[in-house]
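$ ./design --mode recover --in tokens.txt
reading tokens...
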């Protein structure tokens, strides 16, 4: 039995649990549950960490991670260079673990990627705990395995992008809310607010998307008077707001001279960074809303929006394998629990995870554009609904076929109540069924058919998602055969069918639903099918894959402390000719600075930030640095638009011949000396 049930147990149910406690089923449960969970976590660890030395290091974030590991100013404020002249265009919270790892283990690619692996495995483990408390060990194992094998989860946990930390922290918040609803204690609700606030440090406003769902679930399900519930959630929301805004308020209160210029803002305002550049500008036609700087094609993605966003040919194979099952589970989980007490916990779980899925789908569909990896945040909801739904359907299936009465050989102290038969797939739903009935007599009609129907639906949907690319077509016959074995075994059950046969059929059915997405997930171990470092994506979809096919090689992977020969020659030239200047050089946008910052921890003045449109430094500030002999060299690129500062460099500095710093031609980059007479 689990800690959560739909209602407080009656005396009969308490008697059944006591009987089970005396006969020792929990010990038997641990014999299969713990090894099974250990196996799932082992699979997750291998999938997420395989080849970690060549992880998909995001060029921009990778540069910031190395710089943040070099000093407290850059660390706390998310400085792009070690001096922290300008910040990254996000809050730095998601990269603090990465920077600490690089500080501890040295400037290695695997050190920067290691926290992502840990966060991914922790998310699987935490989801298992939460779903187990809600729907039992069977549902928990299915949810953990489903999340582990979701392609977007695998590919993202092998990269250095904030969504991994965001997902972990929001799952932790969901677990705290579930505990608050179950126990009627205030501390778990406060903890939920803290987790949401920390998730805000990872990806800002996206962390708040769960708050309306949490508010509705708590107000509907939590014990106590309505006013008490409302006041308690307001307190939890205040905690979430306070923790969310602590970095923004510190940055706002810190004098501009004592912190980096905040990238993505036109006025160096932290509120503009959060609510403008990373907020309103992503949903409106005004690219400069609330003080944001205008994005570019390199900083803003388009596409993957609209009502079919989750099921298009790019996003669908990343995350939507269990979408029909999840929707079916959410709907039936609420409908079938109609008539239960308001505090019914199984229904609350379906409301929470279903609301999580619905709100994210609506917001993503309304935005100006989404990377496919953004969908990783809905993977836990899909996995939880898949596990909880299958547990609910299995419970209805079990109750339809169990005989109404069984003779008792040795009556228990409470002979009027038959001891509950323990199953390794036990879930909270079973403790409330009452006397078991046959399939034709059950009040729910033919609910027992939901289990095999869900398996068929999920496998058919997998065929639909894979059909445009036929990427793992060799796995389709295996999925179909397993589904046939499972469904036929479940539908043909008779009075003399052994429990082992039923469990085998169910295992075959569940395996059938996982085969095809597992093929897509495992494919990401091949860099050809892992997308670009800036936009991880699984399988033969997306621009990075098609570019690789045309180029006849997989996307190139960059790393920390692994400069190319060209970058090494440039760094050697700059270091040799440096004469006490504060900055190694100034670069036009982060694009030009990234490989140098990943190779060496040095102060670099990044003009224009990530987009090139951030008004830092001004031409007056640039001139003052040159006059004060704090800056000598500037590196410009033809890959970004001309700005006032690049015009100043061209008119006040001298172009250096490419041969002087080890290049035959300058290519798209040109080095200037601003102190050469």
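writing sequence...
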């Amino acid at each position: 039995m689990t800690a959560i049930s739909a209602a407080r147990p009656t005396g009969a149910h308490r008697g059944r649990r006591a009987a089970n406690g005396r006969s020792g089923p929990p010990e038997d449960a641990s014999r299969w549950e713990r090894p099974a969970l250990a196996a799932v976590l082992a699979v997750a660890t291998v999938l997420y960490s395989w080849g970690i030395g060549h992880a998909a290091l995001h060029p921009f974030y990778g540069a910031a991670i190395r710089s943040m590991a070099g000093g407290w100013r850059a660390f706390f404020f998310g400085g792009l260079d070690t001096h922290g002249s300008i910040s990254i265009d996000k809050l730095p919270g998601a990269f603090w673990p990465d920077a600490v790892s690089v500080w501890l283990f040295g400037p290695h690619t695997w050190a920067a990627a290691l926290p992502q692996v840990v966060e991914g495995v922790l998310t699987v483990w935490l989801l298992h705990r939460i779903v187990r408390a809600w729907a039992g060990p069977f549902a928990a194992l299915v949810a953990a395995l489903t999340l582990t094998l979701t392609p977007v989860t695998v590919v993202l946990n092998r990269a250095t992008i904030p969504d991994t930390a965001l997902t972990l922290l929001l799952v932790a918040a969901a677990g705290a809310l579930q505990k608050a609803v179950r126990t009627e204690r205030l501390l778990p609700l406060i903890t939920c607010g803290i987790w949401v606030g920390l998730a805000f440090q990872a990806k800002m406003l996206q962390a708040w998307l769960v708050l309306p769902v949490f508010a509705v679930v708590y107000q509907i399900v939590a014990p106590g008077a309505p006013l008490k519930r409302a006041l308690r959630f307001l307190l939890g929301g205040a905690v979430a707001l306070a923790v969310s805004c602590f970095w923004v308020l510190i940055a706002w209160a810190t004098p501009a001279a004592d912190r980096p210029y905040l990238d993505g803002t036109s006025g160096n305002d932290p509120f503009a960074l959060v609510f403008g550049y990373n907020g309103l500008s992503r949903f409106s036609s005004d690219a400069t809303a609330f003080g944001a700087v205008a994005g570019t094609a390199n900083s803003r993605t388009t596409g993957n929006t609209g009502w079919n966003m989750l099921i298009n040919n790019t996003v669908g194979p990343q995350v939507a394998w269990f979408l029909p099952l999840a929707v079916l589970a959410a709907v039936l989980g609420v409908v079938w629990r109609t008539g239960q007490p308001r505090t019914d916990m199984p229904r609350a779980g379906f409301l929470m995870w279903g609301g999580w899925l619905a709100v994210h789908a609506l917001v993503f569909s309304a935005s100006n554009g989404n990377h496919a990896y953004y969908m990783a945040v809905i993977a836990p909801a899909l996995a939880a609904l898949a596990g909880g739904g299958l547990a609910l359907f299995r419970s209805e299936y079990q109750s339809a076929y169990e005989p109404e009465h069984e003779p008792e050989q040795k009556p228990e102290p409470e002979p009027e109540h038959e001891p509950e038969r323990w199953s390794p797939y036990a879930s909270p739903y079973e403790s409330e069924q009452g006397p078991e009935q046959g399939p034709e007599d059950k009040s729910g009609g033919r609910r027992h058919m939901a289990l095999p129907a869900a398996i068929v639906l999920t496998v058919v949907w997998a065929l639909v998602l894979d059909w445009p690319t036929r990427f793992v077509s060799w796995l389709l016959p295996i999925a179909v055969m397993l589904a046939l074995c499972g469904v036929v075994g479940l539908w043909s059950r008779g009075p003399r069918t052994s429990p082992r046969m039923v469990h085998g059929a169910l295992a075959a059915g569940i395996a059938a639903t996982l085969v095809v997405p597992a093929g897509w997930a495992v494919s990401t171990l091949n860099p050809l099918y892992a997308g670009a470092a800036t936009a991880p994506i699984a399988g033969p979809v997306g621009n990075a894959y098609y570019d690789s096919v045309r180029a006849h090689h997989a996307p190139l992977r960059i790393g920390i402390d692994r400069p190319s020969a060209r970058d090494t020659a440039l760094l050697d030239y700059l270091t040799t000719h440096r004469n006490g200047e504060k900055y190694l050089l100034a670069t036009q946008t982060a694009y030009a600075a990234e490989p140098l910052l990943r190779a060496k921890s040095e102060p670099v003045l990044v003009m224009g930030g990530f987009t090139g449109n951030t008004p830092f430094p001004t031409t007056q500030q640039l001139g003052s640095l040159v006059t004060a002999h704090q800056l000598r060299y500037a590196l410009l690129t033809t890959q970004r638009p001309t700005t006032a500062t690049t015009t100043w460099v061209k008119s006040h500095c001298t172009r250096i011949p490419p041969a002087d710093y080890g290049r035959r031609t300058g290519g798209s980059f040109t080095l200037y000396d601003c102190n050469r007479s």
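exit 0
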